[in-house]
Amino acid sequence: xxxxxxxxxxxxxxxxxxxxxxxxxxxxxxxxxxxxxxxxxxxxxxxxxxxxxxxxxxxxxxxxxxxxxxxxxxxxxxxxxxxxxxxxxxxxxxxxxxxxxxxxxxxxxxxxxxxxxxxxxxxxxxxxxxxxxxxxxxxxxxxxxxxxxxxxxxxxxxxxxxxxxxxxxxxxxxxxxxxxxxxxxxxxxxxxxxxxxxxxxxxxxxxxxxxxxxxxxxxxxxxxxxxxxxxxxxxxxxxxxxxxxxxxxxxxxxxxxxxxxxxxxxxxxxxxxxxxxxxxxxxxxxxxxxxxxxxxxxxxxxxxxxxxxxxxxxxxxxxxxxxxxxxxxxxxxxxxxxxxxxxxxxxxxxxxxxxxxxxxxxxxxxxxxxxxxxxxxxxxxxxxxxxxxxxxxxxxxxxxxxxxxxxxxxxxxxxxxxxxxxxxxxxxxxxxxxxxxxxxxxxxxxxxxxxxxxxxxxxxxxxxxxxxxxxxxxxxxxxxxxxxxxxxxxxxxxxxxxxxxxxxxxxxxxxxxxxxxxxxxxxxxxxxxxxxxxxxxxxxxxxxxxxxxxxxxxxxxxxxxxxxxxxxxxxxxxxxxxxxxxxxxxxxxxxxxxxxxxxx
Length: 600
Fold this sequence. Notes:
Number of strands: 12
Shape: elongated
CATH topology of the largest domain: Ammonium transporter fold
Strand content: 5-15%
Low-confidence stretches: 4-9, 16-57, 63-68, 391-397, 399-433, 588-600
GO cellular component, one term: plasma membrane
Structural class: alpha+beta
Largest sheet: 4 strands, antiparallel
CATH class of the largest domain: Mainly Alpha
Protein name: Ammonium transporter
GO molecular function, one term: ammonium channel activity
Region (Disordered): 401-426
CATH superfamily of the largest domain: Ammonium transporter AmtB like domains
CATH architecture of the largest domain: Orthogonal Bundle
Strand order of the largest sheet: 5-4-1-12
Number of domains: 2
Radius of gyration: 30 Å
Helix content: 40-55%
Family: Belongs to the ammonia transporter channel (TC 1.A.11.2) family.
Number of helices: 19
């Protein structure tokens, strides 16, 4: 859960449901694998063809002090199953916001079966890397290196996010990210401490080294942020914590405390350098959209940790964990660092090849990437719901689909056309007279409405659609009609049609509704709009509580007009319109009507 919160926090608000839904599905798929596949695979080999380094007793047994574990097989299945689930969550961090959910459901079991298990059984399951003496105490290679490499490889095949998301991708909730990071740090002590499957000196060293390295790495990353950017970033501190935890993982119980400090210094600086400097200069990394920088925080930090483990590995601690008891780090005169480099290179190469094959195969069956229309909308298109119910939001949750209720939410009126059939939302009824908000429209006979994109609210020539037009012409002029006994207006086009809040979804399964033209005669509530002043700007609220909203982004949704509610706390500004008065009401003496209400 901590990992999911940590990944969810940095996302944009409209991607929250997608992220939690996607990683939740992969957790279910991972849980189905053991009973479906049955007994675990044997290791790919029993002995290595590489130069052997084992030391044998005279009776032929391998010299090792590793304790014999005493625990049910179910405990091992669950423990290792959670490791596998975490790995796929990390892969998802590189793909969030754009991978087709169906393709993701196919990717998870295939990747776990053909990529993850090979690395896991090679290093942990008695495979050739294990017997040759490659060290991976708790998943630096099996989990973090493989997920970082697989994530950036899959991101290459899926393609980047929209240009808007790549240019501006603010986190939706830093506090939520901090909560997840705290849970993650606490859980990582069990993650690494449980590596030996016993409570011994190895597990104790693993727990203390985990915290030492993470704390050191967090401080180093924060210092670098202050030195180069002038401020200590909270997000940067979390990144530094993550790289420290990842770096110590392959050697948590195999190095001494002073070595954990040294590893923390390097894990807080090397991934920072690759993320902040190399990534911005190397065209290959710039061409691949790694959403949360998983390559830097997990692949780079994981490989770095494996190599440093080969440099700092303490012989006595190694003898408690490995079958190759004469393994020792470079500072102790050993050649373990070479084994670590080769073992990491195998994991990298295997993941690049197998992940690419899986992506290509899935792409032949189902698109890897979400449609562009869904990318522009986000959660609404994928799940038909929002991650948050903030002020002004939450109306998109459909009780008839998500609960056992059958409440009739239909407004108490009967629409006069297909475009104005019963809305799924309760009708908005104003409480007070708002003379100030109606002042502009009481004195105007006809107006033009200009969106934040500097385009005009326009009645299309098909006499049905409402679009955003580039130029001033008669179709962008709307006649103002005041609604009797209510602070609301009707806007009539040059075709005699009215601006209407229809119940036609923008896309199937999406809660945003189209704004259209209809010939519905008054008093149809669907053609009534309540003006709301925000400083010198205006919003128009429909009878169902939504706001007239211009769509932006890529075609074909670039010039569409909907009635919707804001997705992000700061997206309310996109609901504001300039009002250009074309003709005043007869007898108006207000000089203020000669000015243009500025939007920005």
